Amino acid sequence: MFKKPLSNLKTSAPLRSSDRRKLKQRVIATYNISPEIGDILVPEGLMSRRFATNTNEQGVAYWSPDGDPLWFSLAKDGDELIPTVYTLWKKYDLLPCITTPAAVIPVLMGGADLMIPGVVQIPSSQTLVPPQLVAIAQYIKDCPTTFGAPLAVGRLAVDLGKLKAGGKGKAVHLLHSWKDCLFNVGSKVDPPGVVEVQEVGGSKEGAEGQAAETVIAGEQDEPSAEVQEVGGTDFGEGNPDPPADPAPRHLVQQPQVSTILRNAVLQAIRGTLKSLPTSSFPVPAGTFYSSYILPYRPAGTSEYPLIDIKHSTYKSLAAFLKVLDKQGILTIKDMKPEPLVMSVAASHSEVLSHTPYVSLRDIQLKEEKREKREEEEKAKVQEMEIKELWKPHAPSGSGRFFSEGGFDSSALYTYAELKATVIKYITARQLVNAHDQSYVNVSQDEVLLNIVAGKNDSDESLEFLKREEVVQKLSEKMQNWYEIRAEGREPLLRKGQLKPVSIVAKTRQGRRANTLVSGFEPFLLEAEEMAEELRRICAGSTGVSSLPGKAVRSEVLVQGKQIKAVTDFLLSRGVPKKWIETADLTVKK
Q1: Is 435 in contact with 429 (CB distance < 8 Å)?
Q2: ω into residue 131 within 30 of 0, thus cis?
Q3: How confident is the model at residue 420 (pLDDT cuts 50, 70, 90)?
Q4: Rounded to whole angstroms, how far apart are CA atoms 120 and 16?
Q5: Distances (CA, A) of 28 to 21, 25, 125
Q6: What is the C-alpha separation between 216 and 122, in angstroms, rounded?
Q7: Largest CA distance in the chain
Q8: pLDDT, tens digit, 9 for 90 and up, residues 125-172
Q9: Label partner for 582 (CA 20 to 30 A): which of 79, 380, 401, 566?
Q10: Cα separation, 145 vs 209, whole angstroms
Q11: What band does 459 get if pLDDT is binned at 50, 70 and 90?
């Protein structure tokens, strides 16, 4: 559905508090979640924006304050709220989940529907029927109660019975996936780690902490050898393509696994969690596990695929968190479908005595910094090369100057070339003043006199002129042109006088300040794209409107006084600083 970029994007607008509360209640009622989870999935500062797909389906998307699309709805579906993968990564079990081998993931990312032969695990819930929404995640071989982050959202196409039986045909009609054009509007972050569940897409563990049944498509017990063959490694921590010759697993005893996971929690509290604001809590257990336990395992444990909660002495994430809660390392709130981590004890004796080590996260951050530096080097914007040009114009008389002097009357001249032409002309005709060579004897040459003379100028006042004045007056009687060269773009040559981009901060509607940007089109910038980028940069609403009497020129409005932010944006796009004019009209004189 989102194979191509969204079209007819309307200007984003922040939701009013009342509209955001209504949206949260819809999410709570539709997905049967707690109000606390509702606050996480429908955060404050949500923005709405209308769009159309490449097939002209109309819809509305809801963006987080960070610019990630969290929800979308389509008019044909009666405005049903559909979560994006950004939302599913906050709560893995929001939708019933179907798993598929690693080899199928790239096919789904290309926009294809999930076929029945590509299904490995299906939800055990008997209430799931077409066309209900389902999530699609990668199947983790040899770990039937563990799966990777949801990577796609779609509608179930057939009954679960048919999926169990196998066969041919479509299993899920895809709506949205990781790395499609809707996802790419957001921050484009990588998927988080794996999570352990007791029922794929269903409820969490029972009161005794026992795992619920997981159904393997086409089998009653273990997956077949064929399924295991196509299964890949953990998508959150490795290559999505299955290795041709996988290395043998390193066996670690359960007590060792438990110790490693416990130390990972201590490492996370000491290094990251203690500095988080209280507003970051509560954290769903699944998110806590994938974001603050798995990444904080010691570096090198990625070689040990069985270091996870399933292969520890705790067996389940809920049991592990309860032990930590009893020991005072953190506090949890037991809720369905999963517990919430309410806080952590940064002053606990075990946290203070913990000896930090290099974690998987440290290695990942180091690699990300290296990649970021490389990207920044590649993305260093080369400043636009802008030339102001002048062309001889016969009606104004400048054409005669060039033809009489033997110069090309159809060429475009830079100011330096224009100056050299004047010097050559006055030197050839011996018009340089004998007493001061910076002056020109204008009155001694009829052609030159006609060029520099204005309506109210007398011949006496024009007897002598400085050489620079002659060049300036000649340029005023020529056609203005300009040329813009930008990296990766074809050179732009246009007639007319180039004016700087205007950035003006004004006060409107009482005390509300806005920043208005205009005159950017000649610099190869588009209004809608600029408005979208500035919305993210300035974390405020933006708008685009046509300037009166200028059908091809637009004005971008940014909420608040954002002169510096807009200037930095223009500089990042290669606009030279000399071609940016700013004015703050909000300051009282």
Answers
A1: no
A2: yes
A3: very high
A4: 43
A5: 10, 5, 20
A6: 6
A7: 108
A8: 656 788 889 999 988 776 666 777 899 999 999 888 888 877 788 999
A9: 380
A10: 13
A11: low
Q: For the segment 69-116, what is each residue's pLDDT rounded down to a tens digit?
A: 999 988 765 668 999 999 999 888 889 989 988 888 888 888 889 998
| Strand-strand pairing, 97-100 and 133-138 | parallel
Token code pair at residue 496? 């007319």
Task: For residue 219, give the 3-state DSSP assignment.
Answer: coil
Give the SS3 label for residue 98: strand
Joined tokens for residue 127: 């209430």
Neighbours of 219 (CB within 10 A): 13
The amino acid sitting at 179 is K
| Alpha-carbon span 22 to 16, nearest angstrom | 10
Is residue 155 within 8 A of residue 131, CB to CB? The reply is: yes
> H helices within 415-555, ranges in order?
415-428, 446-452, 467-476, 527-538
For the CA atoms of 88, 532, 568, 570, what is the dihedral angle to 10 degrees? 140
Question: Distance between CA atoms of 266 and 272, rounded to whole angstroms?
Answer: 10
Average pLDDT over residues 370-391: 79
Token pair recorded at residue 513: 């300040």
E-state strands within 139-205: 146-147, 152-156, 170-177, 195-196
Name the residue type at position 324: L
Portion of the chain with pLDDT greater than 70, in percent = 82
Query: Of the ranges 5-19, 463-477, 480-494, which one carries the lowest mean pLDDT score?
Result: 5-19
CA distance 395 to 478: 9
Which residues in 167-239 belong to E strands, given as ranges? 170-177, 195-196, 215-216
Contacts of 467 (CB under 8 A, 6+ apart): 419, 422, 423, 426, 438, 439, 440
Query: How deeply is 458 buried, as exposed, middle or buried, from its count of CB atoms within 10 A (0-12, 13-18, 19+)?
Result: exposed
Compute CA distances 518 → 179, 255, 332, 522, 559, whole Å.
33, 65, 53, 10, 15
* Over residues 18-32, mean pLDDT: 86
Contact assessment for residue 562 and residue 542, using Cβ atoms and an 8 Å cutoff:
no
Can you tell me the distance from the alpha carbon of 74 to that of 94, in angstroms, rounded to the nearest whole number? 19
Per residue, the 3-state secondary structure of 334-395, as one string, reads: CCCCCCEEEEECCCCHHHHHCCCCCEHHHHHHHHHHHHHHHHHHHHCCCCCEEEEEEECCHH
* Collapsed DSSP state (helix, strand, coil) of residue 154: strand
Contact (Cβ atoms closer than 8 angstroms) between residue 529 and residue 553: no
How buried is residue 586: exposed, middle or buried, by Cβ count under 10 Å (0-12/13-18/19+)?
A: middle
Residue 466 pairs with which residues in a beta bridge?
Answer: 439
Please, what is the Cα angle at 233 between 231 and 234, to 5 degrees? Answer: 120
- Residue for token digits 């914007």? 381
Of the chain, the end-to-end C-alpha distance in Å amounts to 54
Distance (Å, whole) CA 173 – CA 196: 26
Residue 251: predicted pLDDT: 54
492-495 and 501-508 strand pairing: unpaired
